[in-house]
Design brief:
The complex is a heterodimer. By secondary structure, chain A is an all-beta fold. Chain A has no helices and eleven strands. Classes of the chains: A mainly beta, B mainly beta.
Chain lengths: ~110, ~110
Amino acid sequence: QKEVEQDPGPLSVPEGAIVSLNCTYSNSAFQYFMWYRQYSRKGPELLMYTYSSGNKEDGRFTAQVDKSSKYISLFIRDSQPSDSATYLCAMTVTGGYQKVTFGIGTKLQVIP
Amino acid sequence: EADIYQTPRYLVIGTGKKITLECSQTMGHDKMYWYQQDPGMELHLIHYSYGVNSTEKGDLSSESTVSRIRTEHFPLTLESARPSHTSQYLCASSEEAVDEKLFFGSGTQLSVL
């Protein structure tokens, strides 16, 4: 069983829709949770970074962490065609060097 | 502008050739990493470095080698390329205090014929 499970999609939504992307994980020691966005033929870029449980909002993006359910989400409000990309969840145990474990990525397409 | 650069972006090469993938960063980060990414698969760490003269193997076994002679430079070398080495190679770096925030280059897409 993979430590991090993520539906690869693809997910197609109309422009303006609310998008929900999710990951589940099995390692209860994970404490740092990240979302990376990767455009085609580019490297991933950090989008959201959360420590432990709770919500974090940044513009149209909201990251949620539910450690009791081992479930994290990324919500995108008012989705735009420029949001079309692959979204990778990532997580790690603690600070100091620890391996960052990535999900497989969900491919999102926002249709104008 | 602080950034992380990878060259070449694309490389098509024959079996048995020696290749070096270049990675440089201008952010002064001590920690650097090489990841391998295949279609439909997770990113897998193949090498990392804590600083000059420090190199370690990652989780995914790789026949490649790395060196870290200068802080800003972290090249990856394959002595004899094989078709099984065909993949996307991503270089990344992170700040000393916040390892989890990785800054990635645009990657090198390697095809070995």
